[in-house]
Write a structure and sequence with these properties.
There is one protein chain. The chain contains three helices and 38 strands. A hairpin with a 5-residue loop joins β30 and β31 (about 410-420). It has two domains: about 15-305, Glycosyl hydrolase domain, family 43 (Tachylectin-2, Chain A); about 325-515, Jelly Rolls, CATH 2.60.120.200. By secondary structure, the protein is mostly beta strands. Bound molecules: (Z)-L-Arabinonhydroximo-1,4-lactone. (Z)-L-Arabinonhydroximo-1,4-lactone binds next to β7, β11 and β15.
């Protein structure tokens, strides 16, 4: 028997959407200002996941210039129409709502290439798509209610999409405003044709601790929709702050070949009930059907820590899917986890044949919502050691390179070195809501290669340089609960000329992301 531990995708993997084609599951999550965007993950058993590509992986697909943190790519939906994969998603610029919007991309192979975006004439966020028996395509999504009865009331719309015209056509139907009176942010809608009915699954309550899942059903895709009397059908909000996992919601349903049902959804591991530096992660939840309605986590009513996948044995034995070993040990430039800010890694750095990265310094610093010399990966474990050995011999005077713990341009901490004439200045710093504090500072003898490290243990980030912990930063001042926004923490290497013209570069000689040996990301029992 194979057991999968929750979360199935640790670290910042919010707004999961899943589809099945034959025996294979495909899953995408939101990536905001990080590129490549929208990782496409594949599994044969819901246990072992492999990143097979990214849906947004060409510079010309979308323009991210100047998009600030927690803008960018929101809640994608992935579906398959029998021939092609579809992803619908939103590009959000929080400073300019005339930019971006909802778009569609398609691909024959989920690994890519994905088409250039087709922009949809629909405002709001969280688009989704469903196909009916006659092949008609029904787009849907969420937006602020046109005629709200209260603040942050949203509405779910449905409209037909005509592939030949590449456009939404026909009348629009507003089908849902959430189940609960006064509720905010009915969002993340997904429509499904199940049996002779249409089902709507939608989140409500907002993507924090009050998050919930509601369901409604109708005979016609355009409604009218009748909400389940048991709504909201799933939430962790009534469990209190001691539940360990908060914010469960934003679900997408999937049926396995043996007829069993599951949902993927986001939730946050918050040891203190409030703070979740790993961000919103992807969890798996069993679903049963009773009296024509879905029951989430039947008999239990909360996300399980682990669940058995009874039918997974056969697939595992086929040898196709191996436990994911990439979450420990040294990683290199070819690892699909590497991301950059607002540009693709290949646009700002050169991957060398030996697996190292050469990162040319840029004018912007990590505090700017611009193109920053930055390469980073998600934090996926509460306890993890991240080390970077930086070759700083090619930094120019006054330039800085370092290892950053990043929430956003407004909020991050770093251990970094600055070239100063004949030496190096080692610093630990913390930028909090635009205010930058130097936590520690010491001179280092000039050296070609400098090891820097961040040791994460629960809510403590030890910043390590010159062989010692020089400062400790509290994750509860860095996570989205403290700073706002939608992201988990990233660890990365950056280089900046502090607003001046850049001259140098830094080589990332080694970069290791190592959970202590007993912290296994995807335990298989
Ligand atoms: C997502 C939406 C949400 O689009 O967070 O607050 C957004 N709600 O469902 C970003 O993950």
């Amino acid at each position: 028997m194979i057991t999968v531990a929750n979360p199935i995708l640790p670290g910042c993997h919010p707004d999961p959407s899943i589809c099945r084609v034959g025996d294979d599951y495909y899953l995408v999550t939101s990536t905001f200002e990080y590129l490549p965007g929208l990782p496409v993950m594949r599994s044969r058993d819901l246990v072992h996941w492999e990143t097979i590509g990214h849906a947004i992986d060409r510079a010309e697909m979308l323009d991210f210039a100047g998009i600030r943190s927690s803008g960018g790519l929101y809640a994608p939906t992935i579906r398959h129409d029998g021939e092609r994969f579809w992803i619908v998603c939103t590009l959000v610029d929080p400073s300019d709502d005339t930019r971006g919007g909802n778009f569609l991309i398609t691909a024959e192979d989920a690994a890519g290439p994905w088409s250039d975006p087709i922009w949809l004439d629909a405002d709001g966020i969280d688009p989704s798509v469903a196909f009916d028996e006659s092949g008609r395509v029904w787009m849907h999504g969420t937006r602020l209610a046109r005629d709200p009865a209260w603040r942050d009331q949203t509405e779910v719309w449905v409209r037909e999409y005509a592939p030949a015209e590449r456009a939404l056509v026909g009348p629009e139907h507003v089908i849902w405003r959430g189940a609960v009176n006064g509720v905010v942010w009915a969002e993340g809608p997904h429509l499904y044709r199940i049996g002779s009915r249409w089902y709507l699954i939608a989140a409500e309550g907002g993507t924090e601790a009050d998050h919930a899942v509601s369901v409604a059903r109708a005979d016609a895709v355009t409604g009218p929709y009748e909400g389940a009397r048991t709504n909201p059908v799933f939430t962790h909000r009534h469990l209190g702050r001691g539940a360990g996992v908060i914010g469960a919601g934003h679900a997408d349903l999937i049926q396995a070949p043996d007829g069993s049902w599951y949902a993927v959804m986001l939730a946050m591991r918050a040891a203190d009930g409030h703070h979740y530096p790993l961000g919103r992660e992807t969890f798996l939840c069993p679903v049963a059907w009773e009296d024509g309605w879905p029951v989430f986590a039947p008999g239990r009513g909360r996300l399980p820590d682990a669940l058995e996948i009874p039918w997974a044995d056969a697939a595992a034995e086929s040898g196709t899917w191996q436990p994911d070993a990439r979450l420990s040990g040294a990683i290199d430039a070819r690892d699909p986890r590497w991301t950059s800010l607002r540009v693709l890694p290949a646009e700002i750095a050169t991957a060398e044949a030996d697996g190292t990265w050469l990162l040319p310094v840029r004018t912007a610093s990590p505090a700017d919502a611009e193109t920053v010399a930055f390469l980073g990966i998600r934090q996926q474990h509460a306890d993890v050691d991240t080390t970077a050995r930086l070759d700083v011999s090619t930094l120019a005077d006054g330039e800085t390179a370092g290892l950053i713990v990043r929430q956003s341009e407004r909020d991050h901490a770093a251990v970094q070195v600055t070239k100063t004439g004949d030496g190096l200045l080692l610093r630990a710093m913390h930028r909090r809501d635009d205010w930058e504090a130097v936590l520690a500072e010491r001179a280092l003898a000039d050296a070609a290669s400098v090891p820097l490290a961040v040791r994460a243990r629960g809510y403590a980030y030890d910043l390590i340089g010159d062989g010692a912990v020089i400062a400790t930063v509290d994750a509860r001042e860095l996570d989205a609960a403290a700073t706002g926004g939608f992201l988990g923490t990233w660890f990365g290497v950056f280089a900046t000329a502090h607003g001046r013209g850049p001259r140098g570069s830094v080589r990332i000689g080694a970069f290791r992301y190592e959970p202590p040996v007993d912290a296994v990301a995807v335990p298989i029992t």
